[in-house]
Amino acid sequence: MSPKRPGTIDILSEIKRTLPIGIELHRSYHYVVPLGKKRKLSLIVLKLHCPDEHTEKLNTWRSEMANSVDMATILVRRVKSEQNIQSNLCAEFRGVSLLTDESRPKLDQMLQSLCGSPPEHMANFSNRKGRREDLTEVPFIAIDRADTRDIEDLIHAEKKNNGTLVWRTAFVSATDEVQPGSAIDRYALRVASTIYGRHRTITTLGDDLSHDIVSFLPGQVRPAWIVEGWLIPREAVTIKGKRPFTHYALQYKVRYGDVVNHRSIDPTSATLRDSDPSINHSIACLAEVARILQQKRSSRPSLLRVDGEGAIEQILAEIMIESKRLLSDFLGQLKELPIIYRVHQRPSREVIEQFHLALENLRIPHDLSDFENPSQFAGILQSLEGRRDPESQALLNNLLDTFLLRTLYSPDNFGHYGLRVDSYAEFKPRDASGLANQFQLAATFEQTPPLSYGEMLERANVLNEKRWRRDERSFRLIFLEMLYDKLNLVGTVHLGSIAEVRPEKTYVDIQGFSKWGLLEGSDDDQTLEVGSPVVATLKGFSLEQMRFVFSAAAVA
């Protein structure tokens, strides 16, 4: 492990880079807990598949990882999805014990059948261009990795001479191409939300739409729903001994127009500066907008879930939260249309008291007020995570679900307790609820019939049922992709080392493989020692052991 570094390190990337061989990451959640005086705690929840023999290695890695980064707490939830995949593979390959390169065509069929093939895309249903504003001159930018193909949001900001900050968030519109109840709409509801693998994606609209017509490809004109917000300075406040600060009033409007992605910026790039001064000005203004919005939203301590810890990702996360809140307010309150919210209800007093009693029974020091204090709450989670008894682990999982992970789809707005916002909804078509909410936006601007409350409730119920299986489907996609790619290497020679020697099995750590393989055909007269280098040929993948099998070519 590297020496202790500041908390601004991209913790999730470091976790993926250093995770020990044989332990597989299914999903990660990253929460930033404000502690005051510009201090923050990173609370990271990892869903992992960890074989029992790697438990000690996992504990050692987790301790070293937490010590290497300032103000970070890492919690682990262990999952068993691999067992379901093994059953599925055995059913598909009946009578086969070792998968080889000849198994790849069937694996490809399994990958394609995860959600079925998307329906054929038809021509757009209406020409609404004349009804949209021309906003193509606004220098919108995309904050996405260079390999992103489904670019669904753009942002821009500027500062007026009077100090007013104006920001705009554009969400790509799918309603020119998809109608409620159409084949693509039904397919999107079946997929629920786009799933990302190593090389493939299962998109809600199919690749023809999601990666082309309904994507902000650079330089291409696309229809969009735009949130335009103004932060208007009202008064400067000076407190003795502290820096002056300004109160801002928030106003907004929603627009429907044609926009262009003028520049795509990779959030992982070393610098955010651009050759275009207007882009640099926009990025600086976006940072100022995000700072003000975060202060408004976090007047009480909150947990903000983000996908990364880079500055530009924090800016994007804060602006997206507010933009989605304003769109939810526009449709739900101003237009009084039913939409599908993402809700995270505040736990009731009775629920908190039950947790309090359970913690007392386990003799874990705490106070009822700790449930309202993010740093103290993180301490409770850490205390439970350090205990291996079933009662502590069950309580830990329940607390994580209740306070952090349990968000539901609902046409009734209960607010989002985790984000500390009064309303929150999706508007990107990569989520089926976002597509449904776009239908309501189209009804507002195009006077098309809106979806009813009953229709939105039915969609929300379907999505709630599917969300429990999303993580397993995502892992299945990544696992089958890995298997498909690696079996193309059958017969090739690899370098590695002996990882573990047992009376009947020898495990080998091969470069480029995330899990120890089985070594066969080693010289019986030679004593194998852990750490000994080995040259091995890939034979295939054992369905019984769920590991790759190698034959020893030479052992040094």
User: Mind describing the biggest β-sheet?
Assistant: 6 strands, mixed
Q: How large is the share of residues in beta strands?
A: 25-35%
Distance between the termini: 28 Å
Low-confidence runs: 1-9, 300-310
Structural class from helices and strands?
alpha+beta
- Tell me, briefly, the overall form: globular
Oligomer: single chain
Helix content: 25-40%
The total number of structural domains is: 4
Number of DSSP helical runs: 13
Chain-averaged pLDDT: 83
Number of strands: 20
**Rg over C-alpha atoms, rounded to the nearest angstrom:** 26 Å
Describe it for me?
The chain is an alpha+beta fold and 556 residues long. It folds into four domains: 1-79, Alpha-Beta Plaits (2-Layer Sandwich), CATH 3.30.70; 129-335, no CATH class; 349-405, no CATH class; 490-555, OB fold (Dihydrolipoamide Acetyltransferase, E2P), CATH 2.40.50. The chain is built from 13 helices and 20 strands. It has helices spanning 11-18, 55-68, 81-92, 104-112, 183-191, 207-213, 277-297, 311-334, 349-361, 374-385, 390-405, 432-446, 453-486; strands spanning 24-36, 39-49, 72-78, 98-99, 133-134, 140-143, 153-159, 165-172, 195-196, 201-202, 221-237, 245-265, 304-306, 341-343, 408-410, 493-501, 506-510, 517-520, 533-542, 547-555. The strands form five sheets. Strands 5, 6, 7, 8, 11 and 12 form a six-stranded mixed beta sheet that branches. The protein has a five-stranded mixed barrel with strand order 16-17-18-20-19. 34% of the residues are buried.
